[in-house]
Design goal:
The complex is a heterotrimer of chains A (354), B (285) and C (232). By secondary structure, chain A is mainly α. Chain A contains 17 helices and 2 strands. Chain A has a single domain, classed as ABC transporter involved in vitamin B12 uptake, BtuC. Chain A has a two-stranded antiparallel sheet with strand order 1-2. Chain A is globular, with a radius of gyration of 20 Å. Helix content of chain B is 75%, strand content 4%. Chain B is mainly alpha-helical. In chain B, helix 1 crosses helix 7, helix 1 packs across helix 10 and helix 2 runs antiparallel to helix 3. In chain C, the strands form 2 sheets. In chain C, strands 6-7-8-3-9-10 form a 6-stranded mixed beta sheet, with helices on both faces. In chain C, strand 9 and strand 10 form a beta hairpin. The longest helix of chain C is centred in the C-terminal third of the chain and has 16 residues. The chains are: A mainly alpha (354), B mainly alpha (285), C alpha/beta (232).
Chain lengths: 354, 285, 232
């Protein structure tokens, strides 16, 4: 890890923290602001069509999911195959608290987000305590996903079962109008990006990088691997929950398919295959790209799955860093540009041990 | 109660068969084949099309089994080539991602082209009584076939030189190389075998409930869970885990309904994995 | 019979073994001695196909074998008993030995030779390899390698973890094999034992061959005496 940093900055590790301060805060915020501005213009273009705005809104929700998953998997290598379920915990939780519990929407959303965060943290803690590797973490979280989905079906009284849940709280308010809802989601996504960016620059982010690059070495140098894993899971899961709960209230109805494994987790994976895992803007670029391409291809119905499957294969075989980072790398390597290596580092999944 | 337990055993044997193919491939080659369910669905379609073309049931099933074996071979020769170049965890992850991609492709293609097709092998005749409980012929035949398959696998691995050679690769890959065994060749054979087992899964399942083009994901997930609970690389572990989970699920279903019984099953699986990650009969690393 | 020329080998791009050359003639017993980390295991793994050499050649009975995978090298008549033994823990002694003969069926005559050499294995025929003691596992590992009737037997630290009495028994068994015409190559840390047994030897240090000579020559060499024979 130190050699990578040395190459990038030309100095030793010690000076890095200080040098990163104010100069690069702007460097981090600028791209986010740019993306936010570009996305803020979307309703001007699509605002006329309810269907298209719905798609855009969903796209942003997925961007939120992708950022949360990116934080958990990209930063600390925990394969959480329960993105949909964690979002669903907050989605259904918030809806139930508001509609059946009578709590105000904001309180419901906050409590639901907290619940999702705690569940994520718990899963991570269990994985750490039992020293589960990537695969087993994936399996356990997959089991959680399936359990959640079956609980939704089985506890029909509470959740509306297969048919789902029509959320009455918030009906008739600005939440249900697509454009305000869109901007709300956009605000959340920007918040997530800023939080992720700040984390990366903090000592927590340093811990993430250390543990991702070499968990054993990190542990030996005093980085408490367990703690950072659980932190990442807590924050990432809270993001998933917040996005899920907010989406639930803007859409007004949820069902098991809103937060299902095949509907959410799979899509998030494809998005990250587009945008790259581990980088700051990767998830949102991937989400936008995927949403756009998916809409263009909508006429092909199920055949799209064929394309995405092929894409996953091509991507992970030949372009493991994600389409956009690779294209960006090619762009940067033009003769006239500077030689700074990009900040996004590949996730442990693609690094060959030994 | 007997009825519930018998139902559980029938279900459990199905689970075990599901897991057998997957666990062998994982145990031997460190490869996770998430396209396993789709392989089963493809072979089901082969049998279906054969029967629709007028081929009688038994040869059609045979055709399906052959198709399964061929699929396994194709997998080894194509998709798994790049996977073999990696080792250990990198290999598992890459195999997971690539086979996932294949699974999507197959599911997308089949759902788009033949969305309504389903294989259903009707076994005629009335119910047969086992231990005082009337059981459907389809379930009985499926279980009988599964038991025969299990017996066959057992004999193969215990008593034949090839079977022992394959076991040795699971036990210690380098040790196997040192006695002249080629691990890649053994893996290829196991992949062919797992393809045949996938076909068997599809065929026996179709005797109980129709196998449609959407069944792939469910098959893969259950195969994965039972595999992990039973232990990687052990067929007996797969069947033991399968039967236990099947009976647990059946008992739970009679009290609290299908969905919640699935929750119980999943929780039981998760608990086993957490308490004993190497699986019921697995080897502690 | 075995000619190793200018082998460089290592892990992840870092060579651990540098420019190592040695040879073993038919009927000889040759030792490679050196302390921990000298590179003996890396050298042997490379020779036997478990590790790819960075460069260099290995010829066995006139044929190039460098770069071939282990399963092919073994079939040409080299038996390898690695330091970690690599037995099949959940399989019985009987099964382990039978597999030694792969792909041929285990020859009853060979089997009885092995049993004569290691009578304890006969008693434990049906015992799982993983449950046996270190010494018994070592015997099994050697026995398994012998089942394919190799011309050359290569052993990497055969006496590690064995009590002195068992270590002596192991070398006595090897002596019997020598008299039956088997060529032997042994890597050892327990230098006195190896020296008494072998004709010639090479001293490996930090991946380089530092010395070579007959056992007498090496035993008399003051550097060897200080470093490996504990003489001050």
């Amino acid at each position: 890890m130190s050699s990578r940093l040395t190459r990038a900055t030309g100095t030793s590790l010690i000076g890095v923290a200080e040098r990163r301060s104010s100069r690069s805060l702007l460097a981090m915020l600028a791209p986010i602001a740019l993306v936010a501005a570009a996305l803020a213009l979307v309703p001007l273009w699509l605002g006329g069509s309810r269907v298209m705005m719905g798609v855009a809104l969903l796209g942003l929700a997925f961007a939120g999911y992708a950022i949360g998953f990116n934080l958990i998997f990209g930063s600390t290598g925990q394969l959480f195959l329960c993105v949909g379920a964690l979002a669903g915990v907050a989605g259904y939780g918030g809806a139930i608290l508001a509609d059946r519990g009578g709590l105000p929407i904001l309180v419901s959303i906050l409590l639901a987000t907290l619940a999702a965060g705690l569940v994520g943290g718990l899963l991570s803690w269990i994985a750490v305590r039992r020293s589960l590797g990537v695969i087993f973490t994936g399996i356990i979280t997959l089991i959680f996903s399936l359990t959640f989905e079956n609980l939704l079906f089985g506890l029909g009284q509470l959740t509306g079962g297969e048919a789902g849940f029509q959320i009455s709280s918030g009906a008739g308010t600005f939440l249900r109008e697509l454009t305000p809802g869109y901007y709300l989601m956009l605000a959340l996504v920007v918040l997530f990006l800023v939080v992720h960016g700040l984390l990366r620059r903090s000592h927590i982010g340093w811990g993430f990088r250390a543990l991702r690059d070499d968990g054993v070495a990190a542990e030996l140098t005093g980085v408490n691997v367990a703690r950072y894993r659980v932190y990442a899971a807590l924050i990432g899961a809270a993001m998933l929950g917040l996005a899920g709960a907010t989406y639930a209230f803007t859409r007004g109805r949820i069902s098991p398919t809103t937060f299902g494994f095949t509907q959410v987790d799979v899509v998030v994976l494809v998005m990250l295959a587009f945008g790259g895992i581990g980088s700051l803007l990767g998830p949102i670029l991937g989400a936008v790209t995927f949403t756009a391409i998916n809409e263009v291809l909508i006429g092909f119905g199920e055949l799209r799955l064929l394309a995405y499957g092929a894409l996953i294969i091509i991507l992970f075989l030949w372009i493991p860093r994600g389409v956009i980072p690779t294209l960006g790398g090619l762009w940067r390597r033009r003769p006239s540009s500077s030689v700074d290596p990009p900040d996004d580092t590949p996730a442990p999944a693609r690094r060959e041990p030994g | 109660m007997t009825a519930i337990i018998l139902d559980g055993i029938v279900l459990g044997l199905q689970f075990g068969l599901l897991a057998a193919g997957l666990t062998l491939v994982y145990g031997l080659g460190g490869v996770l084949n998430l396209a396993f369910g789709e392989m089963a669905v493809i072979t089901a379609m082969v049998v279906l099309f054969a029967m629709e073309a007028g081929v009688p049931a038994a040869p059609a099933v045979g055709l399906g089994l052959v198709a399964g074996g061929l699929l396994g071979l194709v997998f080894d020769l194509t998709i798994l080539r790049p996977v073999y170049r990696r080792k250990h965890e990198a290999r598992v992850l890459l195999s997971l991602l690539l086979t996932l991609g294949v699974a999507f492709m197959v599911e997308g293609l089949l759902n788009w082209r033949y969305p309504l097709k389903a294989l259903s092998l009707q076994i005629g005749g009335g119910a047969i009584e086992i231990l005082g409980v009337p059981m459907r012929r389809g379930s009985l035949l499926a279980s009988a076939i599964t038991l025969v398959a299990l017996g066959g696998l057992f004999l193969f691995f215990r008593s034949t030189a090839l079977g022992r050679a394959i076991r040795s690769v699971i036990e210690d890959e380098e040790g196997a190389q040192l006695v002249g065994i080629d691990p890649h060749l053994m893996l290829r054979l196991i992949l062919i075998l797992s393809g045949v087992l996938a076909a068997l899964v599809a065929v026996t399942r179709s005797m109980v409930t129709p196998v449609n083009v959407k069944a792939g994901f469910g098959i893969t997930v259950f195969a994965l869970i039972v595999t992990v609970v039973g232990g990687l690389g052990t067929v007996s572990g797969a069947f033991l885990a399968g039967v236990i989970l099947g009976v647990v699920s059946s008992i739970a279903a009679s009290y609290i309904g299908t969905f919640l019984s699935l929750v119980i099953l999943l929780m039981a699986a998760a608990l086993t994995i957490l308490i004993r990650p190497s699986g019921l009969l697995g080897v502690r690393e | 019979m075995l000619e190793v020329s200018r082998i460089y080998a290592g892990y992840q791009g870092n060579d651990v073994v540098h420019d190592v050359s040695f040879h073993v003639e038919e009927g000889e017993a040759v030792m490679i001695i050196g302390s921990n980390g000298a590179g003996k295991t890396t050298l042997f793994r490379t020779m036997c196909g478990l590790l790819a050499a960075s460069s260099g050649k290995v010829r066995f009975r006139g044929e190039e074998i460098a770069g071939l995978p282990a399963q092919h090298i073994v079939r040409r008549g080299i038996g390898f008993v690695p330091a970690e033994r690599h037995l099949f823990p959940r399989m019985t002694v009987q099964e382990n030995l039978s597999l030694g003969a792969y792909p041929k069926r285990p020859d009853p005559e060979t089997m009885s030779v092995v049993i004569d050499l290691f009578p304890r294995l006969a008693e434990r025929r049906r015992q799982r390899a993983g449950t046996m003691s270190g010494g018994e596992q070592q015997m099994l590992a050697v026995g398994r390698a012998l089942m394919s009737r190799p011309r050359l037997l290569v052993l990497d630290e055969p006496t590690t973890g064995l009590a002195p009495k068992l270590a002596h028994e192991a070398y006595e068994a090897l002596q019997v094999l020598r008299r039956q015409g088997l060529t032997l190559l042994v890597a050892e840390q327990q230098v006195p034992l190896a020296m008494a047994f072998c004709d010639r030897g090479y001293v490996l240090e930090n991946g380089f061959v530092r010395l070579e000579g007959s056992s007498q020559q090496l035993a008399a060499d003051p550097r060897v005496r200080t470093a490996y024979l504990g003489v001050t």
